[in-house]
UniProtKB/TrEMBL annotation:
It comes from Euplotes harpa. This is Large ribosomal subunit protein bL21m. One of its GO terms (molecular function) is structural constituent of ribosome. HAMAP family: Ribosomal_bL21. One of its GO terms (biological process) is translation.
Length: 134
């Protein structure tokens, strides 16, 4: 929580920043240069994405929580590959009836690489934050 008497400290090293993003109804915590497995999206491999549904951005010294999204934050990513998960086995059996059913399922997933997390915060925005009173 931001203390109004102290200035906002934003990390000089971009590797210390993380974000919580929302993609197709699921939330993922990501950092710079991280690889994330998500459900299949209607995009091609190698395509660049800009994710503006950022729920939270933070560092060790600072956290910004959106209501519901942080409007000044964006996450830049690129699609690395499209693959399928390991087979999930579905086995159904009714005892003493001679009924057995074996079925499998493989989900199509995409691997995205987080290239950059950008969070623009101005001095006037930093002064508007109030300390949390519990």
């Amino acid at each position: 929580v931001h203390d109004p008497s102290k200035p906002v400290t934003y990390p000089q090293d971009p590797s210390g920043i993380f974000a919580v993003i929302k993609i197709s109804g699921k939330q993922y915590k990501v950092t710079n240069d991280a690889s994330v497995m998500i459900e299949k999206l209607p995009f091609d491999v190698g395509q660049k994405l800009v994710i503006d549904q950022v729920l939270m951005v933070g560092t060790k010294e600072y956290t910004s929580i959106g209501r519901p999204f942080v409007e000044t934050a964006k996450v830049y990513a690129s699609i690395e590959e499209e693959s399928r998960t390991e087979k999930a086995i579905i086995f159904k059996k009714r005892r003493r009836k001679g009924y057995q059913k074996n079925q499998g399922h493989r989900q199509t997933v995409m691997s995205i690489r987080i290239e950059n997390i950008v969070h623009e915060i101005g001095e006037e925005q930093a002064n508007n934050y109030q300390p949390l009173k519990v």
